[in-house]
Specification:
The chain folds into 2 domains: about 290 residues, Alkaline Phosphatase, subunit A; about 50 residues, no CATH class. The strands form 2 sheets. Strands 1, 5, 6, 7, 8, 9, 10, 11 and 12 form a 9-stranded mixed sheet that branches. It is about 35% helix and about 15% strand. The radius of gyration is 21 Å and the shape is globular. The protein is built from 10 helices and 12 strands. By secondary structure, it is α/β, with parallel strands linked by helices.
Length: about 375
């Protein structure tokens, strides 16, 4: 009997820079919110209520719609012990699950290795954006990194197929002699050859795609659109990753304007992404994780907010049991962590939930231990 069950797919959207949790999920019934945010605060009468205590930023209407449909799990107070206020260190910890040392393997890199140990598919994972996030890095794991899917590919300007094939063959022969010259050269040689294979395959995705959904012009919207295009192309891709522009959520100054713009774009892009998948009957096997490296300080600095802890994450999809998960961290002075929100959900428990309950993998070797899981799937 032929199985019609689709493989589960995980999409990750990283909000680079440290999103302000306090102005994203707003504790509008707590007077300490206004006390701590005399300047950088949301008008309470504009908050989109989730319950009698907390609500969403008013610019997040598209995500509120998905929440009301039961498609959004909001993970409150997400973080880790002994939080770092350094972008680089905190992001390393989130990417490698190594809070006590600098890790050299990403949690998703290990995930990809579990999903495709023999590297049968060079497109098991795809990153959309510049560079390669450390989360996706692991020895022997090929990951295609795409700047613009519409123009992606090797030597795509060569239209004559025979000439293009010859050029690709030259590139292949350049990489091949490096194999067997040492682990570093082996890594570059193998991943170089895999990139050649993946580039040609990925370049076919946009031509197979049509949609009535109109995405915004910002980079997050375009990358979320690209993710849908790759998913619909049935290339066997299981992990897809993208990042809001580097440090864009680092709102030390002018936060009310910048944070509003950022969440206006991000909220719309996430809703368009979901609606696009739904339009193509392709939403049932996709789950989206939205995370950031840390929250912001509880008290504002006049026009913005500085690096903090105790952030918020979102998990979105048809398979998700929508709702609030974890307690909102207390704003009482004696319950803060050096002026920051105290975390009450370890991010490795969030990862473990996604890995085991969604991807069907053993989470312990991937996140380096056992952590309390949540029941949003």
């Amino acid at each position: 009997m032929t199985s019609t069950k689709k493989d589960p797919v995980l999409v990750v959207l990283q909000l680079s820079g440290g999103n302000d949790a306090l102005n994203t999920i707003i504790p509008y019934s707590d007077p300490l919110y206004l006390d701590n945010r005399p300047n950088v605060r949301i008008d309470l009468d504009k908050v989109l209520p989730i319950n009698d205590e907390v609500g969403l930023n008013p610019i997040m209407g598209p995500i509120k719609r998905l929440y009301d449909e039961g498609k959004v799990a909001i993970i409150q107070g997400i973080g880790y012990p002994k939080p770092s206020r350094s972008h680089f260190r905190s992001m390393d910890i989130w990417h490698t699950c190594e809070p006590d040392k600098v890790g050299d393997q990403g949690w998703l890199g290990r995930t990809i290795l579990d999903l495709d140990p023999n590297k049968d598919n060079v497109l098991t994972a795809v990153n959309f954006g510049r560079g390669l996030p450390r989360a996706l890095v692991a020895p022997g794991v090929p990951v295609a990194s795409v700047g613009n899917l519409e123009t992606y590919g090797v030597l795509t300007g060569i239209e004559v197929e025979e000439q293009r094939a010859k050029a690709l063959d030259v590139f292949s022969r350049v990489y091949t002699p490096m194999i067997g010259k040492g682990p570093v050269l082996d890594y570059f040689a193998n991943t170089g050859l895999d990139a050649l294979k993946g580039a040609d395959i990925l370049s076919t995705a946009p031509e197979k795609y049509s949609s009535t959904v109109e995405y915004g012009a910002d980079s997050v919207a375009q990358y979320m659109r690209n993710i849908v295009q790759v998913h619909l192309a049935d290339l066997g891709t299981r992990v897809m990753y993208t990042t809001a522009p580097y440090n864009s959520f680092d709102t030390h100054a002018g936060e009310l304007v910048n944070h509003t713009r950022l969440w206006s774009e991000t909220s719309a892009a996430v809703a368009d992404f979901y609606d696009d998948l739904k339009e193509h009957n392709a939403s049932d096997n996709v789950v989206l994780l939205v995370f950031t490296e840390f929250g912001r300080r509880v008290h504002d600095n006049g026009s913005g907010s500085d690096h903090g802890a105790g952030g918020v994450s979102f998990v979105i999809g048809d398979a998700v049991k929508g709702g609030l998960y974890g307690e909102y961290p207390s704003l009482e002075q004696d319950k803060l962590n050096e002026g920051d929100l105290q975390f009450n959900n370890d991010f490795r428990g969030l990862y473990s939930t996604l890995l085991e309950k969604w991807m069907g993998l053993d989470a312990k070797p991937i996140v380096n231990g056992s952590f309390e899981q949540l029941d949003f799937i």
